[in-house]
Amino acid sequence: MDKRQFLKTSGALLASGIFSPLLTGDEREAPRTNWSGNYTYHAGRLDSPKTVEEVRQIVKRSSKLKALGARHSFNSIADTTGDQISLKNLDQIVLDTKSRTVTVGAGVKYGQLAPYIDSRGFALHNLASLPHVSVVGACATATHGSGSKNGNLSTAVTGMEMVTAEGEVVVLSEEKDGDRFRGMVVGLGGLGVVTKITLKLLPAFRMRQDVYENLSFDQLEKHLDEIFASGYSVSLFTDWQNHRATQVWIKSRVDPGVRSEIKPEFFGAKAATQNLHPLAGHSAENCTEQMGVPGPWYERLPHFRMNFTPSSGHELQSEYFVPRENGYQAILAVERLREHVTPHLFISELRTIDADDLWMSTCYKRSSMTIHFTWKPEWPQVKQVLPLIEEQLAPFGARPHWAKLFTMAPSRLKSRYERLADFQGLLAQYDPHGKLRNDFLNTNIYGRQI
Ligand SMILES: Cc1cc2nc3c(=O)[nH]c(=O)nc-3n(C[C@H](O)[C@H](O)[C@H](O)COP(=O)(O)OP(=O)(O)OC[C@H]3O[C@@H](n4cnc5c(N)ncnc54)[C@H](O)[C@@H]3O)c2cc1C
Predict the structure, then answer these.
(1) Smallest CA separation from ligand 1 atom 7, residue
(2) CA 446 to CA 450: how far, in whole Å?
């Protein structure tokens, strides 16, 4: 990331409206930022083609280019010194009930896709904490939800249509391309401009969400796996004070017609008596329904509702993935830094994700626990804390979330990805002249600046 630029903009800009239209190539005066407002894009123009053919023409005529999704990344991953291209107009959704897959244009967000497939009897296996991100942008960065048996969102991808840096349309699939495909799904925006993506589906299901307050970390020492397996998707929130999780959110599948009461206690934590926001003092109006009320999967898996601002709005985020078996030790390691962390923190979240075999996935071959930080917009201070956290988590081989803020040295990052050299090979094959390379890839994948 261009840190000088980041410092200049962090904390200075109000969060931009998530539904504000992206600017066209003709509207270049106003600086464009990511969703949080902490990062201002350097890209000169933003084109919004309406067809794949237009995408091809734009890619061909560009010398430097980057695809932009819903702008929810916190770092420079979606930026370029050239032009950006938004696929927001490619918003078609094609359901194949026979193969139980759905193919969506690269402009489609989970918030649009989920009700559509639910109304036709289908579901995705998981969702992130918010539905506002694009399917393609999320899958390109290994975005995840929670659930010890749920892989991240990228694990649902079975096919992609992509315009390569040379302007050629390629169609890729798990079935046809095997291991190479597994290298391309978490493509970090570097392999081409994805125009369509195909996801595998489950039959639609219903869920309930139960929230508990004050779970002692002592319970995690012996029961971490049990606690995280107590629902389909489980999240713990903490401010790192008082050796406890402030809230536990348990999202469970429910069978139609079966109603059960909320259990008053969960490993010593007490059932909440009303809907809660993970951040103390914030209205729960923005949050999905709790208190055990059953509802469709897509209205329980995310924490935040589609038509409301997710999380805090004006914030920074970082997240680290550690092997689940080291989860408790990793929690203790971060807890030791609480006096550094808490003053700059809105809230932390702990989640689990199943292992996968996608080369650049943060869960590659590792059943993981994540330690997430929603920071106040105080980059100068947060920038000082991140190396401390990364040092504490080094013994566990922590991998940072690709789309969030981290300070880890490229050499350390490299040691965490055994297929990195193979991924570089794919980048060279699909983008031989570095049209899609940006500072983020140069630093974190190539370990250098050009
Ligand atoms: C409030 C908030 C909550 C969040 N919650 C979670 C969470 O629960 N779990 C989690 O894992 N993450 C979470 N994130 C992070 C978020 O999921 C990632 O930043 C995700 O990448 C955002 O997707 P996007 O559509 O905004 O993509 P962008 O940020 O716009 O782009 C991300 C990457 O995808 C690439 N890309 C986008 N479109 C294309 C395309 N058509 N072709 C090729 N490459 C493309 C871009 O080039 C870039 O490299 C959260 C972020 C915010 C702001």
Answers:
(1) 128
(2) 10
